[in-house]
Write a structure and sequence with these properties.
Number of helices of chain B: 10
Largest sheet of chain B: 7 strands, mixed
CATH class of chain B: Alpha Beta
Strand content of chain A: 15-25%
Helix content of chain A: 40-55%
Number of domains of chain B: 1
CATH superfamily of chain B: Thiamin diphosphate (ThDP)-binding fold, Pyr/PP domains
Oligomer: heterooctamer
Strand order of the largest sheet of chain A: 3-2-4-5-7-6-13
Strand content of chain B: 15-25%
Chains: A alpha/beta (353), B alpha/beta (248), C alpha+beta (77), D alpha/beta (184)
Number of domains of chain A: 2
Number of helices of chain A: 13
CATH architecture of the largest domain in chain A: 3-Layer(aba) Sandwich
Number of strands of chain A: 15
Largest sheet of chain A: 7 strands, mixed
CATH topology of the largest domain in chain A: Rossmann fold
Bound molecules: thiamine diphosphate, iron/sulfur cluster, magnesium ion
CATH architecture of chain B: 3-Layer(aba) Sandwich
CATH topology of chain B: Rossmann fold
Largest interface: A-E, 71 and 71 residues
Chain lengths: 353, 248, 77, 184, 353, 248, 77, 184
């Protein structure tokens, strides 16, 4: 760790990715995260790494796919409409067991929408916006510092499971500046081309083929079952979440990313008035921390889910609560960011305050 | 007895999934021979397309990846940029390259990406049952031009090498044909020039191969070759459209 | 004499391209049926084959495995 | 009454045509019918099959889990369907390219060198109809007359010239079936 | 209605769409539904309507978007990977309030997968594979006949709500042939260009602008709220489902499309053995028939969900059941179609049979 | 006093969102004038792009739709095919048209789609803050080519009209410039030719307009115009690259 | 004399293009500030303006609304 | 202690620079800081603003719901923030292009013809710093020395020549603030 630097979230994330060992970036500009590719375009050539502005997001994700097939730590970053264009690629990557990292700085939608912060790509990221049964690990940081630390995890998880890891942020986290401290540089010199990588057969005795095609349904089912097995493992050991003031909580707010951060202020407002409310903040959106929800179900009177969307993580919260307690929802749409006060007010209404 | 020709080992022993008389197999053999002769086999990654040649990795024995439909050049770019020492080529049909994949192709070409593309022009979408491709001739009946391709309704055939030759990025752009032994010999020369363009890091290289599709053309393989010669080649002439200095 | 053209009958798909292109018309479709149901091509007139290799060049299925030419018989010493 | 048959072979062996023809016949005879094809690799190579069900009642699933009858045109198809056959089921086999013997002893087996027989009729491609007609004659899901009628609606235009040889194939199939059944 | 014709599902759907008033088709070939565009390519010119093979699915959906902006009944058809490429377009269409119909003949995934029947795009279709908070109406027929009848509904619903309607089928329904009877031809002559259509201002006093862009979050939120209002209306009045032998059911199988059809055979097997099981078959996957699930919750001992995926509709069933009864699942993956027998066996295991 | 010039009503009274001195406004005025003079205003649907001109429908008073980034030509095709009597044009930046949208552009051109495209080449992505575009000059510094565009790393500038002119579908393909009154007069003539190509249903028509981007070029508007003239025009020369019979 | 060039000050963004291009150098940036904070261009020397319209042609913001030319005074009868 | 300020105006008026400078100063003085910008239409035109919070404790939400201080550079910004201001809050206004008067009577108002003042200093663009310095002098979220130090780390390379005029602007801002506070 070094000194604290005041950095924009969208630049800090690039620096963190670079330190975490990103050897290649392919991407296409889109607000509100243009600073990220721009930052990469300055730094990658300096370090002798690869930066390429693709002709589109469709091309970008397929370049990422290609680089991932060589076992190289590779990343792309984009925002909602660009991420939608990548869905076919995501699905291919999933069924090819190759590792990569994708950052989505969500903006207001649907369609062109606006460039303000949103969280309305939760379903797309966690349930699969592409075709077929697949998952990516989805990480949701709530501060610039956490976002930077998480880039290391993102690459490590991607490599560990040969899976795509999505870091789901929003324009607010990307645009804001906070002082950050970076972790140590990953030892990229130690990286070796993995034995499954397609870089030319060379000395290997077998040749490597990476494909998501398996024309016999019997075989494709086997491939799918292997994927599902991987997902079960991930669901078992990679769940991450934060509990904030939950020890004595009578109520719980569920929220992720930016909304969780704002909700912390709301919780502090409530606590000042003696209301015992805490926060469960899923850090991995997939795998979703159902277990902690279940654990707290008996302790609290109700769940209050807050998102910058029309109620997406809400469904996972409800699946976790499974009818045992009421689940209320407060959401803002299309790029509107709820204020701490308004969350608090909406919450209080449910306790009759 | 002196060995005049011997089928290359790089073309595997696995039965191809191609219809009888389909020139995809000829193209495979030419690539296999060229990789062997140029000592590239062990360095090669082939990016296979979606199309009849989707299983190409079973038939040419190199490292391989299977691209999404049309995205072979992007995927190849992704590989080559992080592994410049690999020999990276794409193998693509006319639907794959010229229709859904034209953006990725044009941009790989414009960037002068150090990859090679072998482009099989069989005038339709073979795998999916013979739909119109960008290369379908005017008047040609396909499953989606049941009344023959009409410019007013379906546009004009696309000449990819001619178009790419206007860009500054390609080192070698050519068209050959697979309809006769003579043309096949020439095709191999063009392929080797394209490979050498990459080996020398001169830029993007592409060879279009005028092919046939007996099944969907609803002709015998022999009739198909005749049609290629008499009807297709006049519209898609053989030639080298861009050869920058250093290519040989 | 050894055959000038070696055909892998299992691989042949009976497409007829080699037959159509052979300048000497020494190839034909045989009566055999291989395991995929195809009648493979056969060289019925080895004598007249000129080892030009056209059949090899056009065969799409690596069914023409080899083409050989008899070494010219060296005269005298 | 509900009768189902699986027809399976290489693409190009006329699997689908035979199945469709059977289904069309059933429909024309006022039955409920389903025809369910399944291809190999998108279009090319590999093995293709179809499931045809002809019934007096509405058909729920169009899939035949355990065939009571199967027309087997190549080896992979035999490998696939032999273990799935119902007890007492009927397997009709294109012996021309299926060298293997059926191991199961609880099924009826009719082996026909269909390609050779068809070639002798003048068109090797009609082997699918020979076997189909044999099946129809044995199991009677539809009438042979209906089958012939349906054939005529299939072969129109340029294909009209093929009617004759195909009818010959049907007749040959009937003949083979009768022999099998021991009828004369 | 006329005579019964034996037709492939993928051709029948095109004929039905044409009779239901489809004036334009834009699309790109993909197995297992190539017969659909091919059929359109023959019939549309005959009728003086528009058929165009687009250069890609991305182009196709944007052509559909364009035609939809003119108020023309327009359709595209594709299969899983192609549908993934359309996600950006779907999101734009949703936030532009324009009507269109999209058919997805789902195949085995993820990635290139295979061309066998699957149901693994349920999440993508119902939760939103594109970015932002939006929905399409999702219809799932289970016979060729129903599929044909549904095309009329699809266009009518699209026009009624100015929304995209997805008809979710699979290769099985598309490839199979069944006798079908078509409904009467829609009276396309009576169609008028709607007053919101962008076809040139002409005599109109105002000009029309169709956009999904609203740069101020306040405004975009309003647009979103209007969308949400539309969705609430649809959820209220457009829910469709079939109950099969539910009157006396002690158990319920939930399944849609092809799986439901196969499950009917399983139910009949069970009934023969005296087991009282029925089926709830959602016909609209969005809006999902939560209410009928809730209604039956007390009647039955458990829910048994069957899908050709890893458990997608399952989440909606669980949300409907809300913890009140067990929900079991049986699924096949990657293009494998469960047999009636195997569904029955798996089901019986849960009752200890 | 005689009225020499009067600003067209079709250009609305709404303040544009463009930076001071940005030629997008000049292009808008030329389009507005041409639509008025050719009596097309009431028949027109403009397909606006994503880019600085994303709000173009506020500034030119016709029916309008807002396309997804790069897909304007596809959307225009969708409209024109079902409403052939409408006058359908796209307005696109160089990022929109030449990068993400090149497939849709090439194919609309190859099909000879009866639409018109006005293509603003300002050498970068204006709206998103000045990233490299396919038209960025070699050596030019942008936010994603901080060390100047290098062919080896970032490829070569793309000449869209030159490339499209090799196709059979376009009726009119030209490049003009907006850097001086003389060029602006000429640009208007080209635009009107392009419009007439559509009005006469001759095929696809496109006019590239060499423009500037003072904000991202980090120059004053006046300096920008000078740079366009001195540095850009030599690489992107004014000209008509394809004019089929009947266009005037 | 009436102004030959009509400038809409509210629309002007002070880009200076008209000024740079005016062959007679009769335009300049004024001291006024419009509501968006820009100092609009002004025609300070109407007399010498030749009504060439260059300013109109290059103005990107429809701030140069009209250009007029005095009718030639008809001599005699 | 936690102090927040909103700075709002047209793109190009130096809104972001002022905000960043303040945040950087805070960070250098060992405080927790957040800087949250929000742009109008992607990049061009429209109004942009930023929220800066300087605090002794960790900052939860970086958003300021009700500003205790706002630097208002154009009219739309006044319209937006006037109703949101905390009671007793401080509004600093660029009077040069904000003709409207503030209606609320429960807030402190400092109006400065910032563009004119800046022009007199030799660079109209420094008006943002004049107003920022006035804010810092009145509310003291950071020290003026810190601000000047931070300025030097911002203006490097080609921009170094601008340090002088910007420091003049800061001093001018202080002067205006003192006048406002009635200090001498
Ligand atoms: C995104 C996507 N769209 C469509 C398809 C279906 N598809 C598979 S191959 C193919 C076209 C193949 O034609 P071509 O590239 O000419 O190859 P050929 O089979 O003729 O060799 C298409 C459209 C697909 N797999 N993925
Ligand atoms: C799918 C998608 N990708 C990226 C963007 C972000 N984006 C908006 S405009 C633009 C580029 C604009 O550049 P250009 O087309 O040259 O227009 P200009 O602003 O220069 O006029 C980009 C990349 C987007 N809106 N959608
Ligand atoms: S369909 Fe055509 S291209 Fe494909 S394998 Fe058969 S003949 Fe070859
Ligand atoms: S080598 Fe030449 S002559 Fe001999 S069989 Fe082959 S083609 Fe005929
Ligand atoms: S060309 Fe090859 S596959 Fe074709 S018939 Fe001759 S040997 Fe057989
Ligand atoms: S950023 Fe460039 S292109 Fe965009 S409005 Fe400003 S000057 Fe014009
Ligand atoms: S009309 Fe000509 S001379 Fe008069 S102000 Fe304009 S540019 Fe100058
Ligand atoms: S060109 Fe137009 S906007 Fe620019 S200074 Fe002149 S009048 Fe103003
Ligand atoms: Mg092809
Ligand atoms: Mg641009």
């Amino acid at each position: 760790m070094g000194e604290k630097i005041l950095m924009k979230g969208s630049e800090a994330i690039a620096e963190a990715a670079i330190r975490a060992g990103a050897m290649a970036f392919y991407g296409y500009p889109i607000t509100p995260q243009n600073e990220t590719p721009e930052y990469f375009s300055r730094r990658m050539p300096e370090l002798g790494r690869t930066y390429l502005q693709a002709e589109s997001e469709v091309a970008a994700i397929n370049m990422v796919y290609g680089a991932a097939c060589t076992g190289t730590r590779v990343i792309t970053t984009s925002s909602s409409p660009g991420i939608s264009l990548m869905q076919e690629g995501f699905s291919y990557i999933a069924n090819s067991d190759v590792p990569c990292v994708v950052v989505n700085a969500m903006r207001g939608g649907p369609g062109l929408g606006d460039i303000a912060p949103a969280q309305a790509d939760y379903f797309q990221a966690t349930k699969g916006g592409g075709h077929g049964d697949y998952h990516s690990i989805v990480l949701a940081p709530h501060t610039v510092q956490e976002q930077c630390d998480m880039m290391y995890d993102a690459f490590d998880l991607a490599d560990k499971y040969r899976i795509m890891v999505v870091v789901l942020v929003d324009g607010l986290l990307g645009q804001m500046m906070e002082p950050v401290e970076f972790k140590d540089w990953a030892d990229v010199k130690s990286y070796k081309t993995p034995d499954w990588a397609t870089v030319g057969q060379g000395e290997r005795s077998n040749r490597n083929i990476i494909t998501s095609l398996e024309i016999l349904p019997e075989d494709l089912e086997k491939m799918n079952l292997k994927l599902q097995e991987k997902y079960r493992t991930i669901e078992e050991i990679e769940v991450r979440f934060e509990e904030y003031k939950m020890d004595d909580a009578e109520y719980v707010i569920t929220a992720f990313g930016t909304t969780a951060r704002i909700a912390k202020t709301s919780v502090n407002m409530a606590r000042k008035e003696g209301i015992r409310v805490g926060i469960i903040r899923p850090i991995t959106l997939y795998p979703f921390p159902y277990a902690v929800i279940e654990k707290r179900v008996n302790q609290v009177k109700f769940f209050f889910d807050v998102e910058m969307n029309a109620g997406q993580m809400l469904e996972d919260v409800r699946l976790g609560v499974n009818g045992k307690k009421p689940v209320y929802f407060y959401g803002r749409l299309g790029g509107m960011v709820p204020t701490a006060e308004e969350i608090y007010t909406a919450f209080k209404k449910q306790i009759g305050g | 007895m002196k060995l005049i020709y011997k089928a290359p080992d790089t073309m595997t022993e696995k039965d191809t999934t191609y219809c009888p008389g389909c020139p995809h197999g000829i193209a495979h053999r030419l690539i296999s021979e060229s990789l062997e002769e140029m000592n590239l086999v062990k360095k090669t990654v082939i990016v296979w397309p979606v199309g009849c040649s989707v299983f190409g990795y079973y038939f040419i024995g190199t490292d391989a990846v299977e691209a999404a439909h049309g995205r072979a050049c992007a995927m190849a770019t992704g590989i080559k940029r992080v592994h410049p020492e690999s020999f990276v080529m794409t193998y693509q049909g006319d639907g794959d390259l010229a229709s859904i994949g034209i953006a990725e192709t044009v941009h790989a070409a414009a960037r002068g990406e150090k990859i090679t593309t072998i482009f099989i022009n069989n005038g339709n979408y073979g795998m999916t049952g013979g739909q119109m491709a960008p290369t379908t001739l005017i008047g040609q009946v396909t499953t989606t031009t049941p009344y023959g391709r009409k410019p007013e309704a379906n546009g004009f055939p696309m000449h990819v090498p001619e178009m790419l030759a206007t860009l500054d990025g390609p080192a070698y752009v050519a068209r050959a044909a697979l309809d006769s032994p003579q043309h096949i010999i020439q095709a191999k020369k063009f392929i080797q020039k394209a490979f050498s363009a990459q080996a020398k890091r001169l830029g993007f290289s592409i060879v279009e191969l005028v092919s046939t599709c007996p099944t969907n053309w609803k002709m015998t393989p022999v009739e198909s070759m005749e049609r290629a010669r008499k009807e297709v080649l006049p519209v898609f002439p053989i030639g080298e459209f861009r050869v920058i200095k250093g290519v040989e | 004499m050894e055959p000038k053209v070696i055909i892998n009958e299992q691989r042949c798909k009976s497409c007829g391209l080699c037959i159509s292109i052979c300048p000497k018309k020494v190839l034909r479709i045989s009566d055999k049926i291989n395991s995929r149901g195809y009648h493979p091509a056969e060289l019925f007139d080895n004598e007249n084959c000129i080892s030009c290799g056209f059949c090899y060049l056009i065969c799409p299925d690596k069914a023409i495995v080899e083409v050989r030419r008899p070494e010219p018989v060296k005269q005298g010493g | 009454m509900e009768k189902g048959v699986v027809i399976s072979g290489f693409g190009g062996q006329g699997v689908m045509l035979a199945g469709e023809l059977l289904a069309e016949t059933g429909k024309e005879e006022g039955k409920f019918v389903t025809f369910l094809p399944s291809y190999g690799p998108e279009m090319r190579g590999g093995t293709a099959n179809c499931h045809v069900i002809i019934s007096d009642e509405e058909i729920a699933s169009p899939i035949i889990d355990h065939p009571e009858a199967a027309i087997i045109l190549n080896l992979p198809s035999l490998d696939k369907y032999e273990p799935l056959m119902k007890e007492d089921g009927l397997i009709i086999i294109n012996k021309s390219i299926v060298p293997k013997e059926v191991k199961r002893t609880d099924v009826k087996i009719l082996q026909v060198k269909a390609q050779e027989v068809a070639r002798d009729l003048g068109n090797e491609k009609t082997m699918n109809l020979i076997l189909l007609a044999a099946y129809v004659e044995i199991e009677k899901p539809v009438s042979i007359e209906g089958l012939k009628k349906a054939l005529r609606t299939f072969l129109t235009g340029r294909k009209e010239t093929l009617i004759e040889v195909n009818e010959k194939a049907i007749n040959k199939g009937i003949e083979i079936a009768r022999e099998f059944l021991g009828v004369k």
